[in-house]
Specification:
Layout (H helix, E strand, L loop, with lengths): L1 E7 L2 H12 L5 E4 L37 H16 L5 H14 L4 E2 L3 E8 L2 E8 L2 E13 L6 E3 L3 H4 L7 E3 L13 E5 L3 H12 L4 E5 L10 H4 L3 H6 L5 H14 L6 H8 L4 E4 L4 E7 L2 E6 L4 E3 L1 E4 L3 E3 L17 H4 L9 H4 L24 E3 L5 H4 L6 H22 L1 H9 L23
Helix pairs in contact: 1-13, 5-9
Length: 445
């Protein structure tokens, strides 16, 4: 039995394990379904040339200077190397996380996946699938640090899935054999940063033509996530009332889609065989003569491969580990009714989390074990801001998560702690033996 099982996707999992160790919680197990070095997006589907996050932002170090990205970089390349650095590349960031894991001795079981969670007499039973087959472990707490799609799944529109065989399309968050697009036509659906990243990667791999299509009239220009990068919103979104939390989340998730950074935009535009197609809605797709024909609102598109940069759908029932009891988890639509005109199906589908990112019951008493499952994913945004899904939020979210978990573990053991105190008999002061014949105390022997 473990005090905490951490199910991870990279940096959030490692920082959580380190934070627990700082509080002397060591009976912890860490798992990740990816092979070592492939945790998170950094060497798999992060196809940007550099991180969007400034190099000076800290996070997994939890305030310890010798564990910061800067300390690691200067140890490798010197102070002048740090001054020359603009931003980390995704590969550099993965190297930093690998070093962080090794220098702290964090034991991670790679290629191990959580498949199910069930209550088990006051504990949680977790079914794991890994190199040793299927196993079941018990834990008092489970932290789901499963990344951007940890509260749902990556979304491919039905118009694509229903029309094409699986080898003719991919989501931008999947592994894509870019060498296979050399000399072929590619159509990308989406207007955000990942759409441009994937278009650029296809062009650099030698695609014959790349068309980037999106429904909006123009490329998004304003990045709401940049606005959130200050201590107030990162550290204290959870302290706002429900109305303001709803409004902040709605504006970020629906009002202002994340645009491509300037360098990513120019990375695409330097290719003459790149085309932007704004105000372009895909109405139907079909295979004809080996090519993909797209019936688009601004005219037909003929292509060979489709990349859907269409983000995430938030739906806890789509997570295999949560599906059996997802109906018992409180969502925002269960706890808050927005004013007329401020409705949002997207925000409403997110989990309504407790102060330590724990799931809450939709109906009290129906699933009390939910309080011991902590959702530290991108799905925290309406309840706690970007504390579980971004580098910038780790320094604020991890301590809150750790304090909540440790407090619950202590309170769960309160009866044992009381018995320990009541029978405590450690004598830290030695008194001298009485002098011969009684009277005054003699010398200490």
């Amino acid at each position: 039995m473990f005090d905490v099982l951490i199910v991870g996707a990279g940096q959030a999992r490692l920082a959580t394990a380190f934070g627990l160790r700082l509080e002397q919680v060591t009976n912890v197990r860490l798992i990740d379904r990816a092979p070592r070095g492939g945790e998170g997006p950094w060497v798999t589907f992060a196809r940007m040339t550099t991180l969007r996050t400034p190099k000076t932002v800290t996070g997994p170090d939890l305030g310890i200077p010798s564990l910061t990205p800067r300390a690691w970089w200067e140890a490798k390349f010197g102070r002048q190397g740090w001054e020359r650095l603009d931003r980390f590349s995704p590969g550099d960031w993965q190297d930093y996380l690998d070093w962080y894991r090794d220098v702290l001795g964090l034991a991670v079981e790679n290629e191990t996946e959580l498949t199910a969670i069930a209550p088990a007499g006051g504990l949680l039973a977790a079914d794991l699938r890994g190199p040793r087959g299927q196993t079941r472990v018990l834990a008092r707490k489970i932290v789901l640090a499963t990344g951007i799609d940890g509260s749902g799944r990556w979304q491919v529109p039905e118009v694509i899935r229903a029309a094409l065989p699986r080898d003719r399309y991919a989501h931008s968050a999947e592994a894509i054999d870019l060498a296979a697009v050399r000399g072929r036509r590619v159509a990308v659906l989406g207007a955000g940063a990942s759409a441009f990243d994937n278009a650029a990667a296809a062009l650099e791999a030698g695609a014959a033509r790349v068309e980037l299509c999106f429904r909006r009239a123009d490329v998004p220009r304003i990045n709401p996530f940049l606005w959130t990068n200050f201590a107030g919103v990162l550290g204290h979104t959870g302290a706002m009332d429900d109305l303001m939390r709803w409004r902040f989340a709605r504006q970020i998730l629906e009002g202002l889609p994340t645009p491509p950074p300037q360098d990513t935009f120019w990375r695409c535009r330097r290719f003459a065989n790149f085309a932007l197609r704004p105000a372009c809605t895909w109405r139907a797709l079909r295979l004809a003569g080996g090519a993909i024909q797209i019936d688009a609102s601004d005219g037909p598109i003929i292509t060979d491969f489709v990349i859907a940069a269409t983000g995430v759908t938030t739906d806890l029932s789509l997570r295999p580990e949560l599906a059996p009891f997802a109906q018992h988890i409180a969502l925002w639509r269960d706890r808050f009714t927005p004013p007329a005109g401020e409705e949002s199906a997207v925000v409403a589908s997110h989990p309504y989390l407790g102060p330590a990112f724990e799931f809450l019951e939709r109906l009290p008493g129906t699933a009390p074990f939910l309080k011991d499952i902590h959702n530290f994913t991108f799905g925290t945004l309406p309840s706690h801001g970007l504390t579980g899904g971004a580098i910038t939020g780790l320094r604020y979210g991890v301590p809150r998560l750790i304090q909540g978990v440790v407090c619950d573990l202590f309170l769960g053991d309160l009866a044992a702690h009381w018995r320990s105190l009541a029978t405590y008999d450690h004598r830290g002061t030695r008194l001298p033996r009485p002098a011969a014949g009684g009277g005054r105390l003699g010398a200490v022997q």
